[in-house]
Design goal:
Blueprint (H helix, E strand, L loop, with lengths): L12 E4 L3 H11 L3 E6 L5 E6 H6 L6 H4 L13 H9 L5 E6 L2 E7 H11 L17 E3 L4 H10 L4 E5 L5 E6 H7 L1 E4 L22 E4 L2 E4 L14 E4 L4 H11 L3 E5 L5 E6 H5 L7
Parallel strand pairs: 1-2, 6-7, 12-13
Antiparallel strand pairs: 2-3, 4-5, 7-8, 9-11, 10-11, 13-14
Length: 281
Amino acid sequence: MKLDGIIQKNFIKFSIPSERAVAIETMKNYNVPELIAIKEGTDSFLGIIAINDILSKPEEEQLALVLRRGVPVINKKEKIEDALSLFLSGDFYYLPVVEEEKVIGIISLKEILPVVSKKYKTNKKISEIIDNNNFMGVWEKTPTYIASKIMLNFKVSFLGIFDDTGKFVGILDASDLIKAGEILTGMTESDATKGESGDDWDWNWKSSVIIGTSNFYLPNKPVSNYMKKTFSAVSENLVISEAIKTLEENDTRYLAVIGNNDTLIGILRDIDILKAFKDLI
């Protein structure tokens, strides 16, 4: 099966060189945590600009040095199986389609999952792939800036959010950080400071991050202000094909897996579900 039918031709391109503040503003405007970077004046593919990479290098002013290079790409003449293998080789959402060094489209997990599910029939249930699904969780009143530091330090793409009673109430990921942040122009000294106790985990923070002549501020407001409060909850006994339909129908990347007594067993991402087909290729 060829890729033509699932290639997204209408996607956001970001020209390099440019300023980081412009990249972040573009992400905010389009509500995306990653941008396809091309060489200015051409469609030549350079790499991916991700918000997590920008936040992890706040002192770096040149986008070219934050750019994620060596990203796997695919040609439109290749097969679905080739794209599937590339997705399974890493942990990313977009696969650039490149022809003669020019990016002509992208393939996302959203497009490829239903196709793979239709082609490769499986009776596997969620319970068979959830066993080793560990994720990090934080309290709903955790400051958003602190949550972003946890995500960066532990290299996780999302956090589960829990209330005072330990009940799962939402998910926070990079797209939510984009919405929460604010860009303020003008050179300002970074003033991220510890609280009076001097404890590394004292939450009395001022949360600016220097970005050239602009600051990207992640607020001290609790993550409950920005998290995804609506999520798809499914039974661990649901078969994989139905789980994919749930992702598609609810336009989400996450499934909260619920066991007996309405307890949260784990959170599955689209890429975790795709891994169920690894042995079938």
